[in-house]
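Forum: Protein Structure Q&A
Topic: Joint prediction for protein chains with partners

I've read a bunch of threads here and the consensus seems to be that you should model interacting components together rather than docking separate models afterwards. I'd like to see that in practice. Below is the full input, 528 residues plus whatever partners are listed. Could one of the regulars post the assembled result?
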Amino acid sequence: MRNGHSVAIVGAYRTNFGELWDKGIRELASESIIEAINDCNNLNVTDIEAVFVGNSSASTFSGQDSVGPLVVDSAGLVPVPVTKVGGTGAAGGMALRSAFMAVRTGFYGVVVVCGLEKMTDITNPEEMNAALAHSIDQEWEACQGLTTTGAYALMAQRHFGEFGTTKEHLASVAVKNHENGSKNPKAHYRNKIKIEQAISAKITAYPLGLYDCSPISDGAAALVLANSENANRLTDTPCWIIGSGQASDYVALHDRNSLFSLRASQLAAEEAFQQAKISREKVNFAEVHDNYTIGEIMAIEDLDFFPKGQGGFATLEGQTSLNAEITINSSGGLKAGGNPIGATGVAQAVEGVLQLRGEAQERQVSNAEIGLLHSVGGSGALAVCHIISRN
Amino acid sequence: MTQEVSIPSTWRTIAPRYRLTGSKCSNCNELFFPPRGICLRCRSPTQNGISFSGIGEVLTYTIINAAPAGFQKETPYIIGIIELEEGPRVTAQIVDIDANDVSEGMQVQMAFRRYAAPLNSKSVITYGYKFVPRFRI
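Posted by a regular:
Agreed with the consensus. Here's the joint model:
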């Protein structure tokens, strides 16, 4: 990344995540953007030069292709330019990155990012399973009946075989994220669960069970990004984006070298850390892509917080719990926090802002200085990482 | 959204799906399945229509209980990633075996089977490779 303007998050908000039957794309977009604007000090809407929308599948879930314009329409921001960034589970993180690059390069001074997904208008489970499988290879994976859950199950099996990871390790991720989610008033699930309950839950795709999977959620999150010229005017607590990385991988698992790590995550993290010029040890907390429990285990290894193969053991030992060695998914993650696909990457940034400001209440990471955000698309075909800092 | 199977998309994948044919790099001879137009090793063009023996080994597998539309009648079913003896890997259902008997490293061979049930009367029936335990003589 070449030098450019420093970029800060100056406003942040996330809606409740869950089965929000009374809210559509319009309501989710307007609530998140208006509240992110209100979170700034006196941001005039005419200051907003562009909007970047992260959305995975409005076309599939709602038959709505023009989701970008609908977002600015609902938030009263017409005629501001809007760009929708797709990328399945990584869409929100990629929208944040697009907005970051636009401000970093000096093209814009103040922009809005909105991540959004309205999922529950599809009510038939088989139809939902097919819709969710749109993120994997249709011609060579989904045609066989593979699902996204199945793809992660194939990786989990390899992780089990290679490193001795167990169902108990997976369950410990779910238990921890439900524990954290219980402290997040915006989380989809606020109930705590027991490890036996998670281990013995109904199998969805062996070896993954119900508690290894994140839920189907509606929700949105929004941020206001500003360059250093505007940041201090718009907030007393700017959160600086000090690193941003993104990478791709083969869409189908059978084309990848490794079946127990995500190369795109490794590369995105390397790029972000190089820019930030900090070491892994400086990171106090991370919001990682736990769409499946095995996803979190692979993530904390691929991001190099733990050696490859040790992620499950470390989680079971409590090393990733709130205020342990490194806090992973203080928000409850996607597992308990909810997984409105395109909203998740932006919601991670909202959690990061709350942590850096010291506003995360019961789930506050003590002395939070630096956080990492990590999103994955498909079964690992896309990954994006951001590092944010209080200074 | 659930769709009926597209006739053109089925038609253009018939050769690799029916006969498990892939591609070979015209420069370094690297083999690919599914076929692809450019070699991932040396970026040279590839040649299509390369046959594989259909014999391979299960690298990893899962048993799908929460199935997408079109697959309910087969549920639960086994899907694995199979490494062909020539090197390329294939994602496919493993059939004619009890879920408790499948294991990583087991030898399998290609079989020609029907794919997902048609979703409606206008939908075409699709066929292609699945894998079965390797016959022993």
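Residues 7-12 of chain B form the longest helix (6 residues).
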